[in-house]
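Much of what follows relies on a compact textual record of a protein's fold. With that in mind, consider the following protein and its fold in token form.
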Amino acid sequence: MTEQNSIAVLVIEDNQGDFLLIKDYLEEQFTDVKTIHAKKFSEAKVILENLTIDLDVILLDLTLPDHTGEDLIRDVVNLRLHTPVIVLTGFADLQFSIKSLSLKISDYLLKDDINAASLFKSIKFNIERKKTNLLLEESEKRYSNLFQLSPQPMWIFDVVNFSFLQVNKAAIDHYQYTEAEFLNMKLIDILADVHDDKDVLVKASEISSRDKIYKGRFRHRKKNQEIIEVDIYSSLIVINETNYESVIAIDVTEKIKLEHKITKAIITTQEDERYEIGTELHDNVCQILASSQLSLDMLRDNLPPESVQWFNKSKQFINLALEEIRNISHRLAPSFFDETTIEDTFQELLDNFNTEKKYNIHLDIDFGKVKKKLGSEIQLNLYRILQEQMRNIVKYAHASNIKVSLVIENKKIVFCIEDDGVGFDYQLAKRGIGLANIRRRAELFSGNMEIISKVNEGCKLVVQIPI
């Protein structure tokens, strides 16, 4: 075999006879070879520090007049880190040859065993291996830069014991733990809503996906105990045949606060408008109808007998209109803030939906505890949630029994609305505007909504809001 491409070789060899033999071997296998000779380490150092051409390989004798052994290897390798160094020696010392390979040399050859073909194969193999290693190092450096220089917190954790394997600077800065502290921690230590290893297993399994990137939102706790909302992007990686998860965490706390402010402003505007309309209906339209009743009463004595029944019907229609407008105004502008309790207001709302007595409704409110924990905003939003879900039940459920409960459990307000109707597939119905409104109102107070329903098995809506 011969190599057509040009090659530049530095031979560091003090024995002129060995150098000439090596030079012959090179010229036999390479058609275009530039051989540079150095008899001492000091000469090689000058050449390596001043050489302007690319050097493909260094052939190094281990015994030079001014340098020998391990120190010689280290110094030559450090002078040209990216050039393969092949050691040529006359000593068959197996232990030293193994150790020298750990000093980053590419190969270890005995002079007595070298021929043109074996030298050629060693040079070609180690040049190609060095190129591959350089590409791998560059790839690792790019990954390291991507990981370490990312402005977003990143970490790698063990999917078996949930311990941190590596964290980047952004994670250290954002979560305020040192790198050493992180590496002695587990995932449970930053999860705000998880308190034991079993829960960690559930949470970690959510973000351990074997075939795609996982995305989810979690609540994390920083070192100063501040709770933050983060969007997690995670994917499986394999390091030394072991599975790990690579995670990017994006803090969306401020984004969520801004969204909540916007949502709150929208809801406040809607409530103000509803209150204004409700008040207008109650104070103005009802007064007009009441005046109409008085005017009719003034005509009563002057009516002929055959017109009395029409008079009575008119009075009846006006009374119905007054009652309906009062009900509408109360639904638009519930008045439980001052005059009534939330229990009374809920009961009035449920009664309005059950005027025909079609449903057996049970209302259970732990009023003694709830009264101390609910501000007016939360009360109003719970009222609107009940209003929205009752519309859904009346329109779709075909239920007979409805149960509404409001209690305090585990430092959370738990609001449950349950019916025994036809139920539904939540995956098909979750995009509805009504349920979206309920979810948005719950999230406005850092809460959540859960729907438990199956076809022909009724529906249970649970809203939980932390106190």
Remarks:
- The first helix runs from residue 16 to 29.
- The CA atoms of residues 60 and 87 lie 5 Å apart.
- The chain has a mean pLDDT of 83.
- The chain has four domains: 3-146, 150-251, 253-333, 339-467.
